[in-house]
Design brief:
98 residues; 5 strands; 22% helix; 19% strand
């Protein structure tokens, strides 16, 4: 099971408390994890990534194992610690401004 931490506004939309766990069959990639989340919580479709292009939405960032994975390819493998469930995959709402 992959552990996922969502920002508060997406947890509220999906009515989730705390972190969630999703099962991924095959390679553990950003795309696979996001597809699993959208499958379990259809109300989140289009909030994390664009429905058509499946690209990450602006002001959404992905982190794992103290690394920013936001600009990694969607089909790149996530770190082994995420795949094993030892570390969570973090979806973070970024802040803009100065």
């Amino acid at each position: 099971m992959i552990r996922v931490v969502l920002p508060a506004h997406l947890r509220a939309l999906a009515r989730i408390e705390g972190e969630l766990s999703v099962a991924v069959t095959g390679a553990v990639t950003q795309d696979a994890v996001l597809s699993a989340i959208e499958s379990l919580y259809p109300m989140l479709k289009g909030t994390i990534r664009d429905r058509t292009t499946r690209k990450r939405r602006p002001f959404i960032r992905f982190f794992a194992c103290e690394r920013d994975l936001s600009h990694d390819a969607p089909d790149a493998l996530l770190p082994d610690a995420v795949a094993s469930g030892a570390e969570p995959f973090l979806i973070v709402g970024a802040i803009a401004g100065g």
